Amino acid sequence: MLERALTGSQRYYRWLMFLLVFVGMGFAAYLYQLHNGLSVTGMSRDVSWGFYIAQFTFFVGVAASAVMVVLPYYLHNVKVFGRITILGEFLAVASVTICLLFIIVDLGKPMRLLNVLLYPTPNSILFWDMIVLNGYLFLNIVIGWNVLEAERKGVHYPDWVKPLIYTSIPWAVSIHTVTAFLYAGLPGRHYWLTAIMAARFLASAFASGPALLILLAMIVKKYSKFDAGKEAIDKLSQIVTYAMLISIFFVALEFFTAFYSNIPSHKHSLEYLFVGLEGHKNLVPFMWMFVILAIVAIVLLLNPKTRTNEKTLRIACISVFASMWLEKGLGLVVAGFIPNPFDQVREYAPTIPELTIAFGVWATGILVLTILYKIAVSVKEEVA
Amino acid sequence: MESNRRSFLKVSGICALGLGALPVAKALAKPALPQFLTNSQALTGKKWAMVVDMKKCWEKADEGCKDCILACHKVHNVPDIGTIKEEVKWIWTEHYENTFPGQTNEFNVENIKDKPFINLCNHCTDPPCVRVCPTKATFKRPDGIVMMDYHRCIGCRFCMAGCPYGSRSFNFRDPRPYIKTELNPTFPTRERGVVEKCNFCEERLAVGLLPACVEACKNGALTFGDLEDPNSPVRKLLAQNYTIVRKPELGTGPNIYYII
């Protein structure tokens, strides 16, 4: 089936070239970082994780969201998801690729990456994150590929795929739970030290991922003969609606605990994010942007008229994705380090090389996604 | 032929999976530790700790005395990068309100308000940095010293997120050009991309010497010893004085005690 990635319209090749330019620029910037160390980033002794790890965290959510189509389709036989499931699984593959690349570019000693395997450390959540992420990548590529190949041949997928499908469902939950545990188990990082972290991660994942999936289905529909079907989009948009509401509710819960209990250390990070702390307010405009976008998204999603209208649904999905990105891909990780253990505010802002590398990683993910979607869509068009 | 090739592929696939599981098996198995001869002069203890008498530090010493810091940073080739962002420090001072956030009030007596407190790795009894390290590059020795293996560290900086005391520094750039003290050829310099921290001078204990900071303090403000030994100088100080530790509520069990 792989050969289908090699034959396409000129527009397809132009798009691949366009992405490759960003991949190349990102790679060049990465060589620069390798040569000069992480000193070229905006990270510091005080904010020791920045944009890279925040992106990794956000895209774990996008990856985990595949379960929102996989579970109803395979477990509850929701037929309308039949056409979109493969898109969900391949989106998961691309997202996990993005996650793994962001971890690699964040390492101070990437050449020692395999130490995680050579000296396995079960007490480290990072060890388990490595296992669940790679496992999830493996599951989704194997399941997606085999189901698609069976579809092409007009047969039922082989029996041995079934247990993998069942495994992939709790596994999707595990990748985001384990990623939340990276943060939720650290003493002294009050913003992260919350039992609701994994739940928050899953809720925002199930909002942002399916929102992206809807947008992707719309793009695929525009540029190919493959249509996921209005019913599937409708069902997905309902999932996005509930997940978005729960997600915002969970964020609000953090405010209650911090501000009603009135413990300064628990309030600091939230204050830093939304109003600024000791005159430092780098992230304040972004967080209010998150609030505004979240409100726009919820209003558009709650109203059945705007939810079922393709144009307004598109705006809603962009708002969901952007707002969740601001909250998790920008604010959450950085704010955990502010204020620092000495109660001092040392701010963080990504640098140009750091952003170029991040663009390169995104472009690589989109490249993987394009190729996988090209294959899937070609097969679907052929079968139809 | 076809079925043979298929069964071969199946078997090799299962073998490959088995190899993949090897690290997990390894993780659960207890490796035999290599045996070494130790120096007969070496200082040994069951749980090393330090008591910092801040009164002695302020009252007897000149204002701005940095003997302990200089001695430590010299003996360990600690670089002076010159920016807050990439600062590398093993022992340093912070104001009372920064060292003990949450334990201040506006009426704090003059002798602690804005006073510099000595900060270093707490060599916690239950260190979060060790818990989170994915490669065992950070580990705790049986005598309580929390150690860094610079050659194993992958630079993920999880330990820095885990440490509630800000006691860990990362080498964002090659530290070697920034070593401004006289180079100590007996202690390794670090390279770019690894985390480093205070090691309680384990290399000095191994040859029977006290930590460099303790030795350098002319006023006897720093006392080092074994907490498990009732006759150790630290136990005596702890029995005679009211002491505090940093962020005890986090359950890390810091082993640096402060007399104020």
UniProtKB/TrEMBL annotation, chain A:
Protein source organism: Desulforhabdus amnigena
Pfam families the record matches: NrfD
Record's keyword annotation contains Phosphoprotein: no
Membrane topology according to the record: Multi-pass membrane protein
Protein's recorded name: Hdr menaquinol oxidoreductase integral membrane subunit
Subcellular localization: Cell membrane
A GO cellular-component term linked to this record: plasma membrane
Keyword Transmembrane applies: yes
Record-stated family: Belongs to the NrfD family.
Automatic annotation (TrEMBL), chain B:
4Fe-4S ferredoxin-type domain location: 114-143, 144-173
GO molecular function, one term: metal ion binding
Organism superkingdom: Bacteria
The species this protein was found in: Desulforhabdus amnigena
Keyword annotations of the record: 4Fe-4S, Iron, Iron-sulfur, Metal-binding
Residue ranges that the Swiss-Prot or TrEMBL entry lists as coiled coil: none
Protein name: 4Fe-4S ferredoxin
UniProt cross-references to NCBIfam families, sorted A to Z: DsrO
